[in-house]
């Protein structure tokens, strides 16, 4: 499903260059449950962004479902992000002032799901699944951290993606909420979804079926 | 993305941050109002100055029979007798053929002697009017009391007259209301039916009282069927030279002989007046450009800010699969909606507040449609143009960079 060959990523600032990734080789099969771990600045988030088609590699080849991402245009990448990949950002990345319902509706709008009634049904189904259907009309910023995390997961899943990418999903949660979130990921994985979790947390890393450790932009 | 969803999302973000929306709309409204108010004020001033210039007769032309080579000035009119034969049909012909004029009024002017209340004989300037209504407009006559001469008086050769209120009227009529009293000219008695303000036009001999008569009855008394000259009112001062030209052609068409009449401007100041008006027009354009720049920059700032404030949001929606075009349209629609609402409010603001203020200040308060259309469409255009750059920038934002922001 995912194949990285000697992928590099260099950020250029005015003063210096940062080699965030320095030649990553990685292959991930459909249905895997993977933790990516490593110290701060090791390139975890950069790798996640590249896998998630938010960013392009500076060098090397990245194949997502057999297509060379380097050769796809911005619209193709947007479509992949919209339909094939679900993102759960570190700080949830919700639009805090608007309702949970509308937060989930936006990716459906980009996917041109019509009519709005159909979107509503889909949203309520998924919110029920993550257990916060009763708060659908709350502003996303007005619910607790654990609930926001579940909204973020629901939004990532709304277009039924093949791949779920999460950045420090438990970083802002207590242990009870962390357990709940991880069990959601496990359920999804058991249903066949590929799940990649970037984490600092040793426990989460051990919990995953496979762990990839990054250091200084390389897999060790 | 479907069009409805664009509207839905744009409208959602417009209504979400009420303060930002309010400030944006306010900024655009003030910009629009500045442009429109500048124009309204400028036009009001120009119109007011035009009216004042009109008071000096700048927009008057007149023509009389060409007897000698040499032209005469209005001041000599009472002394010079130049019979001019003109009919109502001729007047109608001129009005039809000269588009730049609004009034045409033949008059007969003659000095007459009469016996006043003091028992002495006085000389006055008698003005016989073929078309009293047109004359009212041309001479800017304000009726103070009673009524003015009517078309019916003219048709029926009524023995009535209207006199100018001046220090001479007391000498002739004695103290008290002259209305209802009589002027005796030769054997004919004319009843005074109205009193008007002192005229700006003196027709020469400013010490002599002016009295208006129906042309028909004055002609009888004086013993003529002719007039002295024809006064023509030009609609707009800038058209005076063109009107003179059109009038000349119309007269040749009607009466043949090119040299039968002399056409002249009442005042020698038409060019000065045109200069003044041009200066004013330029200052109106200047005011409009300044207001437009100030308003336009305000609109730009506001829309730029709105995009900068939402960088992270843009990153999020791009991560969720928004294409460049979709981000671009979302922001464009937003700025169009804000610009249209702001522009409309600006027009309303300007028309109500500025217009009222100008009216109250006693200036002519005219709001031309073109100025409304111009200021509204300019602010909408500036809104869209200044929205399109930040919208484009938002569309081009790297999602990873945008997500890191804020």
Summary of the model, kept short:
The complex is a heterodimer of chains A (220) and B (406). Chain A has 220 residues and is an alpha/beta fold.
Work out the largest interface and the residue count of each chain: A-B, 28 and 25 residues
User: What's the gyration radius of chain A in Å?
Assistant: 17 Å
Strand content of chain A: 25-35%
Strand order of the largest sheet of chain A: 6-7-8-3-9-10
Kindly report the average pLDDT value of chain B: 85
Largest sheet of chain A: 6 strands, mixed
Mean pLDDT of chain A: 92
Q: Helical content of chain A, roughly?
A: 25-40%
Please give the radius of gyration of chain B in angstroms.
33 Å
Helix percent band of chain B: 55-70%
- Counted by DSSP, the helix tally of chain A is 7
Write down how many β-strands of chain A occur, each being a DSSP E stretch of 2 or more residues: 10
Oligomer state equals heterodimer
Tally of strands of chain B: 10
Spatial gap, N to C terminus of chain A:
22 Å
Order of helices and strands of chain B: HHEHEEHEHEHEEEHEHEHHHHH
The best one-word shape of chain A is globular
Low-confidence stretches of chain A: none
The SS-based structural class of chain B is: alpha+beta
Number of discrete domains of chain B? 2
